[in-house]
Amino acid sequence: MKVLGIDIGGSAFKGAPVDLKTGRLLAERHRVEIKSPCSIKEGVAAAREIARHFKWKGPVGIGFPGIIEAGRIGEVGNLGDVWVGQNGAALFRRATGCPVRLLNDADAAGLAEMQFGRGRGKTGTVILLTFGTGIGSALFRDSRLLPNAELGHIPWRGKPFERYAAASVRKRARLDWPEWAARVNVYLAVVERLFAPKLLILGGGVSKKADKFLPYIKAQAKVVPARLHNDAGIVGAALAWARP
């Protein structure tokens, strides 16, 4: 089965057709820049452009940066509060002219890593953490997803942890890799205290530079970079059509 996967981030919509059997992208991904926060009009236009770019007529899976329940959008992070309460599946179905399934963006990346990446065959508690504009998270127990686990929103010094340790913070505060890794270690210590994972998978765009920061990461669990890197969100979004 082939599905168009669309991964929505804080600065862009990215999409490509995906082979659900292999997890491979079937074409070079197409990226549409957006503003943050993003209006509904701009967001649906970005999804429409991606579908038209690939002349897509089949199913579409979308990883959305917010709480998702049965296609409806709950709490939203960087994309903006205008999306809260919207029927996201219906919005994007009208925009693309295709059947659409929606899930949380970090959950999507986690599904991809559990099926095709570092989490494949792993039991116990596995957590994927994506470091980008914010911190996304996907929580698994014996390969079963516990949806909408927003661990980047754990409070720290009166603010969500993602405002302290996201990859965007490293750039904005001009932190070197050891300085940023020290912040990530504080975050990981809290996550480990709460969930005692056996495996921590670090994803997002920063996973391509794992050699620069992994030597400074300290955790009780095994820590590995995501195998699918920044494509995990696209692949996992498509996997929405492989779930019941």
From TrEMBL:
CDD domains found in the cross-reference section: ASKHA_NBD_ROK_PPGK (cd24058)
Name of the molecule in the record: ROK family protein
Signal peptide: none
Domain of life (superkingdom): Bacteria
Pfam families given in the database record: ROK
NCBIfam families for this protein: PolPhglucPhase
Species annotation: Oleiharenicola lentus
